[in-house]
Specification:
The structure holds two protein chains of two kinds.
Chain A lengths: L1 H17 L5 H30 L10 H4 L4 E5 L14 H10 L4 E3 L6 E3 L7 E2 L5 E4 L15 H13 L5 H5 L2 E7 L2 E6 L6 H4 L31 E6 L3 E6 L12 E6 L3 H9 L5 E3 L4 H14 L2 E15 L9 H10 L2 H9 L3 E3 L14 H6 L4 H10 L8 E8 L3 H17 L4 E8 L1 H10 L4 E6 L11 H4 L3 E3 L3 E4 L1 H4 L7 H12 L3 H18 L2 E13 L3 E2 L15 E2 L2
Parallel strand pairs in A: 1-10, 1-11, 14-15
Antiparallel strand pairs in A: 2-3, 4-5, 5-7, 6-7, 8-9, 9-10, 11-19, 12-16, 12-19, 13-19, 17-18, 20-21
Helix pairs in contact in A: 10-13, 11-14, 18-19
Chain B lengths: L2 H33 L4 H6 L5 H11 L5 H13 L14 H36 L4 H15 L2 H15 L23 H7 L3 H38 L2 H8 L4 H31 L1 H6 L5 H10 L3 H29 L6
Helix pairs in contact in B: 1-14, 5-6, 5-9, 5-11, 5-14, 6-9, 7-9, 8-9, 9-11, 11-14, 13-14
Classes of the chains: A alpha+beta, B mainly alpha.
Chain lengths: 569, 341
């Protein structure tokens, strides 16, 4: 059939070649087609000058980078499901809310120093640690002209808790009541919670106008924002978000004339648009290969590369409910055999840091407890633990590593673990790497179906408590039944420890920072002793900017402060 | 029975079939969404949300009800043209989502169809009018290649050449970040800019539409090319064409004035159905170019397990396909007396 096709083609070509090709009529017809094509093409390209008058540049790629005055164009692949502070729980809406709103407390830029923002001073805490009295500023006005008062803040917090949005449990599980008393905000807690001021820096705990928002279950406004921050929401759609400077802002005026954000559906689009000059800033989420390429090309193109450590921790959760990880020695063996540096190099091209505790390195209380106890890729030590567990070549250790199918880095990380372990311990350990779609995976993790899962944790607020409570505490269970209801069940480890529960409760009640730090040290030691998880790596954040943009930084609490960014000299 | 009476009966029966078609699709989508693994509440609240919060959310969404009850409730909603509200973006109705995203899809699809029709008709006509020549072979190869080339690959290649290397066109979105898009009333930027007599905005809109619509248009032009080539070739063998040639009418005029019109009937059918299916199926082009269309939004809703949005959009697309296919059937019945009904 193929031969006959080519024979036919040859015949057609021969017939065609014997005809007159260069007759005047043929040239004329060809010229007509060419002319029509050229006209269409010129029209399309010529429309670029039309674009200029609509705000586009005279030359260059996409318009935003050049024609926007001192407005800054930012590209990202992160999407904003909602802008309602009572329902927004993801990174990107959090960043937007952090820049459009204010909070009672915030961090001094570039540091982890907690300072008052809408409050005038740090809270007065009652002796029992249950009542927080917060004096407030009286010179703040919301975007719609509503004066900021304790009543407005109380309304916003009540709305956060009662409307039933995704982050509602952050406050609803801790606050007993909130009220305005003599112009101060008074918050009563259900139980002592030392990290409460840090929790109040969460992007959604921001004042909103009672005129623009409703209190009540399910009453959300996903596409508007009326708060008190340095930017007002100018427009919001799934692909373009524009922030205008709040001219009446009580604080320091933004260093730029506004922010234009373009949301891309793929990292390739973000990469291509930035490299072709269509954006001032590219922020999250580029693939490791693209980041490496941009770093390589930065000098030649006058791009700036801003690298920052993040507080996102990645770990292997070991299910203690089923074999083989119901055996402590096996868990210790796995903790010894994992080579974190290799994972960082292979899966992330060095764009991640090895992590040896679930509390990230950004906290002074971080201690590399797993490195000290088990080493890194320490196969001799692993072999000892395996022997203690009765693992031999005749009875090898076999386990699965699961990961969400949407995560390419975790796929590479899981494969790296498999290859390195099976190569170093041939015949002794067999690892199966498996994947499932995210919703299915987490449903099965919670039901205890998997041996182990590669997971990550994005903190809600900047406090070490947020890195121990979700991993070590359990509401219902026992050392025998393990966790039946609680956060360790959701994490897939089913870890249950009375001691861990007590230590977490103790640090919640402890107001003395030094004593609290000591408890975190004990909790990290408990992680090493019981090995419910193996910490693996801590991701890094990257921002790429053009040369005429300055003051771009990712804060230690992972916030991206848009008001600091300057454009032009 | 007179022709007009039987035609009316035919139109009536086709219109009666539309709700049945939409109901079938609605039922299938409803059942499929519930048959797929994964809890939408997990997708909504995250796997680490407290169980109590998950229970409250399940009750609020009616997911704790029996499947039959959920289905009856949903059909009741549809009868009042209520497509429901998003679970992920709480407070946003499916109609609002359609209003926000559908114009972008319509604009892209229309431009893509125009390009496809132009390219397909031109290549198909040339190929058909020169049988057994290199043009004929070229037309065949064009048809096969455009049919076989993956949409995302072709889109990426166009991006790399025209946006990254040559820097002629932008990537993604419908309008410059730094400029305000044409204000209403339709959401179709081309139409809105013309309604405001703003030709600069019109040009800018075309500039941003160029690459995505070219990708879509060129790749579906192969379908038209094949149909035009085959039908036109058959038509060119007809007696009346031979008679026209015998009268000394030029070949160009025979094709454009006589043969092409008759060869176009099946093309119109395919054109309409392709347009209707592209309104919901241009997802690869929309994702490749970060185009803020409805297909892109549907993809996002599927990944979020946003039942009401997925169901609502599927019903919406089904309704469009049903309406367009019925419209084409009726149109064909009117214009082509050979069609039996």
């Amino acid at each position: 059939m193929i031969v006959s096709f080519f024979l036919r083609l040859q015949q057609i070509c021969r017939q065609s070649l014997t005809r007159r090709w260069f007759s005047r009529r043929r040239w004329l017809r060809a010229g007509q087609y060419l002319g029509l094509f050229s006209l269409c093409f010129l029209l399309a390209v010529g429309c670029r000058s039309g674009g200029d008058s609509a705000g586009a540049p005279a030359e260059g790629g996409a318009e935003g980078a050049i024609g926007g005055g001192d407005r800054v164009s930012i590209g990202t692949t992160l999407s904003a499901r909602t802008l309602d502070p009572a329902d927004a729980y993801e990174i990107f809406p959090g960043i937007l809310l952090y820049n459009m709103g204010d909070r009672l407390y915030t961090y001094t830029p570039g540091t982890t120093d907690l300072v008052p923002q809408l409050a005038t001073e740090m809270p007065t805490i009652s002796d029992d640690g249950l009542t927080y009295t917060i004096p407030l500023r009286d010179d703040v006005t919301l975007h719609d002209g509503t004066p900021f008062t304790a009543e407005v803040m109380a309304f916003s917090i009540e709305r956060f808790m009662e409307n039933g949005g995704r982050p509602a449990s952050l406050l609803a599980g801790k606050i007993e009541s909130v009220a305005s008393v003599d112009g101060d905000l008074v918050i009563a807690l259900q139980q002592p919670f030392a990290a409460f001021p840090a929790l109040l820096t969460f992007s959604g705990v921001t004042p909103v106008s009672p005129e623009a928002y409703k209190l009540g279950a399910g009453e959300f406004s996903p596409t508007t924002f009326v708060g008190s921050g340095p930017y007002k929401l100018a427009s919001f759609s799934s692909d373009v978000i524009k922030l205008d400077v709040n001219e009446d802002y009580w604080g320091v005026r933004p260093a730029n004339g506004g922010i234009d954000i373009q949301v891309f559906t793929s990292a390739v689009n973000l990469y291509n648009t930035f490299t072709s000059g269509g954006l001032d800033v590219a922020y999250q989420t580029l693939d490791p290969d693209q980041i490496s390429q941009l770093e390589e090309d930065a000098a030649g193109n006058d791009w700036q590369v801003i690298e920052a450590g993040s507080t996102v921790v990645n770990y292997l959760s070991l299910n203690q409910k089923i074999a083989p990880f119901d055996d402590l020695s096996v868990r210790q063996a796995v903790a010894s055999m994992i080579d974190r540096q290799l994972i960082s190099d292979r899966a992330f091209k060095g764009q991640a840091e090895p992590l040896y505790s679930l509390i990230p390195k950004s906290f002074p209380v971080y201690e590399p407890v797993f490195e000290e106890a088990y080493g890194d890729g320490n196969f001799d030590e692993a072999q000892k633990y395996l022997s203690a567990a009765g693992i031999t070549e005749a009875n090898p250790l076999a386990f699965e590593i699961w990961y969400p199918s949407s995560s390419t880095p975790r796929q590479v990380a899981a494969q790296t673990i498999k290859q390195s372990v099976e190569q170093a311990l041939p015949g002794l350990v067999n690892v199966t790497v498996s994947t499932a779609e995210s919703a299915t995976l987490w449903e099965n993790v919670e039901s205890g179906a998997y041996n182990s899962v590669l997971s990550n944790w994005y903190p809600d607020y900047f406090d070490p408590e947020n890195f121990v409570q979700p991993f070590l505490t359990c509401e219902e269970g026992s050392p025998e039944t393990l966790c039946t209801v609680g956060s360790t069940q959701a994490n897939g480890s089913f870890y249950y420890s009375d001691k861990a529960n007590q230590l977490v409760a103790d640090q919640n009640a402890e107001q003395d920072p030094a004593k609290r730090d000591a408890i975190f040290t004990d909790l990290q030691q408990l992680m090493v002793d019981d090995v419910p998880y193996v910490p693996l790596w801590q991701t890094k954040d990257y921002v790429f900017t053009t040369a005429d943009v300055s003051n771009v930084a990712v804060e230690p609490n992972q916030q991206f402060l848009l008001w600091q960014i300057e454009k032009g000299s | 029975m007179s022709r007009s009476r039987s035609l009316r009966l035919y139109v009536f029966s086709r219109l009666l079939l539309a709700p049945l078609m939409i109901w079938t699709i609605t039922t299938v989508v409803f059942l499929l969404m519930r048959a797929t693994p994964g809890d939408p509440v997990d997708a909504l609240l995250g796997p680490r949300a407290p169980e109590a919060a998950k229970q409250i959310m399940r009750a609020k969404l009616g997911l704790d009800q029996s499947l039959i009850k959920q289905y009856i409730d949903y059909l009741g909603q549809l009868l009042t043209f209520d497509l429901g509200s998003s679970l992920a973006s709480q407070g946003q109705t499916v109609w609002q989502i359609i209003g926000d995203h559908f114009p972008a899809t319509v604009e892209l699809t229309l431009c893509g169809m125009i390009i496809a029709a132009m390219v397909g008709l031109t290549v198909g006509s040339i190929a058909a009018s020169r049988p057994n020549t290199i043009f004929d072979a070229g037309g065949r190869v064009f048809g096969i290649v455009t049919y076989a080339v993956p949409m995302y690959w072709f889109g990426m290649i166009l991006q790399l050449i025209f946006a990254v290397q040559l820097n002629w066109f932008p990537i993604g979105t419908r309008f410059p970040l730094s400029a305000s898009p044409p204000a209403g009333p339709t959401g179709l930027y081309l139409l809105d800019s013309l309604l405001h007599f703003d030709f600069a905005q019109f040009g800018t809109t075309i500039y941003y539409l160029a690459l995505p619509s070219l990708t879509l248009g060129v790749l579906i032009s192969g379908v038209f090319e094949r149909i035009v080539r085959v039908n036109l070739r058959q038509t060119l063998k007809a007696d009346y064409v031979e008679a026209a040639r015998a009268r000394g009418i030029s070949e160009f005029r025979i094709i454009t004035a006589h043969a092409l019109k008759n060869a176009m009937i099946p093309v119109i059918t395919i054109l309409g159905l392709t347009f209707a299916s592209l309104l919901g199926g241009a997802v690869l082009t929309e994702v490749t170019f970060s185009w803020p269309g409805l297909a892109n939004r549907l993809y996002e809703a599927i990944t979020q397990r946003d039942y009401p949005v997925v169901q609502g959009l599927m019903v919406f697309f089904a309704a469009i396909v049903a309406v367009v296919s019925i419209a084409i059937d009726i149109l064909n019945a009117y214009v082509d007396p050979r069609i039996r009904y």
